[in-house]
Amino acid sequence: MIRHHAAIPFWNLTYNDPNRWREVEAICGRRLTAWQGMRQSFKGRAIGSPRVTLIACSGNADLEAIMESQSERHIINFEQTSGGTIAYFKVRLELYGIPFRRGEWIGSQQVHSDGSLSAYDLIFQREDVTFVFQTNAPKSTIIQLQGWLDQCLNQS
Q1: How much is the pTM?
Q2: For residues 112 and 155, what is the distance between their CA atoms, to the nearest angstrom?
Q3: Cα 77 from chain centroid (whole Å)
Q4: Which tens digit of pLDDT belongs to each residue from 8-55?
């Protein structure tokens, strides 16, 4: 018997639909309040990650098709939640999000370096499905992002 795995889901979060947010937060935990975000910032732990350029992704064929159909530059960043993070990126005027739980962050791998910019794969895994964000940024920014993801997704 062939076991079929569902792709890692993503949501269009452009519009404030409470039902969508309930689905997202069911995976990664509730978003932090403004007060919790300020307290984290005072401790030196921002709830938002550094931003990097998103080149492509793999792990969900529908999302890959959306990304490939648009030629403009995409930016990705992450927001800490009570149980993980949400990856945010825009395609045209639409805001998309992918929630990740603690323990789903595998790490990153440098693909190549060209002068001041380096291409990195950010790798996540849920069950048997691997999701990869292919990114491009200065090495210092990638190091900050790796540390931020380690802090948010590998803590107990």
Answers
A1: 0.87
A2: 29
A3: 6
A4: 889 999 998 999 999 999 999 999 888 888 888 888 788 899 999 998
